[in-house]
């Protein structure tokens, strides 16, 4: 048993390292495929006036004169030693930028997931309680709307309505962390979390509905009902308790997505998160910022998946024994 657990851990570590290496290669290659570089992004049209000697000096400064393979492994080696690179735009190291941006995105992801669970799980159970009934149709409409409405459209609409009709635009005051000003921070997180939570609630709702319908068809549910177990206890403890694994899995996947997929919402609401950091890095062709930040996002996603896997092994003994 111990040997099996050890083999599983080795496979997980190898899979994680392989995933991160693949992401590193993909991001490195794709950035070089985009026209332009740090020189043209920093100087704009003035880059055309550079003399060959000036251009060569700048390429040496940015390391662009080296072969791509050398550039890649030099960057990867620096990442392993904690040197994430330097941002000329912000005059800060990429590590400092990431340490400031990652907690912001993590906070936004937590709020979004909480809102999504508060909407998705109850509506999913409500839909499953009477399949193909009007209440089920309501749940299906909500999930379809969450999947269909683009985040940028919902974000701009809500921002315009709240700002124009209610004068509510706390994001225009400059971002405040939860430590600096808790009330202002929660106000600034409200609309972005609402937009992201609405989109995430849709897959959680559908997963909950499907899982609950499957569990309700099992014999032990009918037996518990025949024994006179109260309906609320039956639904929460017996049905929902046995449907948690797919719900937890979907929640973990969505949480991992939020750590890097909230770029548009962060930009619209001026939230200085990790996604916005990547977007600004791409606009300025700052290779070190984009490469290092994306690799951190990939690492965070892998860690979230590992934690999710460990969580549903705790929830369901059958998974633990497999």
UniProtKB/TrEMBL annotation:
Instruction: Give the way it sits in the membrane.
Output: Multi-pass membrane protein
Q: Does the keyword Thylakoid apply?
A: no
This chain belongs to which protein, by name?
ABC transporter permease
Query: Which family is this protein grouped under?
Result: Belongs to the binding-protein-dependent transport system permease family.
Per the record, what is one GO cellular component?
Answer: plasma membrane
GO BP annotations listed: transmembrane transport
Subcellular location(s) of the protein:
Cell membrane
* Key words, A-Z: Cell membrane, Membrane, Transmembrane, Transmembrane helix, Transport
Segments crossing the lipid bilayer:
12-34, 108-129, 141-166, 186-205, 243-269, 289-312
Cited Gene3D superfamilies = MetI-like
**Domain ABC transmembrane type-1, chain residue ranges per copy:** 102-308
